[in-house]
Amino acid sequence: MIKEFKEFAFKGNLVDMAVGIIIGGAFGTVVKSLVDDIFMPIIGKITGGVDFSDKYAVLAGEVPDGASLENASKIDGVNLLTYGNFITAFISFLILAFVLFLVIKKFMGALQKAEEEPKEEPAPSEEVVLLTEIRDALKNKS
Predict the structure, then answer these.
(1) What confidence tens digit (pLDDT) does each residue in 53-70 have?
(2) Helix axes 12-34, 83-116, angle to 10 degrees
(3) Domain containing 121: what range?
């Protein structure tokens, strides 16, 4: 049973997948920072200073006008729908999907280019050339 586990745990595909997951997690962190620190302030500026992360709707209870999400969430009996976080997460997803699209398109384009290029067949070895000449000579004798 231990031998089977070693074969499973240390197969090349499993290790490759683990590396991909770790790099994907790090990539997700970079994209989150890109969205939160660069794109969202720009989008906020374009939309007149709107901070999406602080957007919410009151489902139950009363919240004073202009209360921040942090203050509104501390009020007892208040139920909030924090759609601003969803907007930020959705923008993050769109950016991540677009970046992956570009990477995959570039990678697949390079692969397709490599497949489309005609591959030159290597020159036959001296032995093959000699055997071909012998075969042709024998054919011509008969």
Answers:
(1) 777 777 787 778 877 777
(2) 130
(3) 2-50+82-141
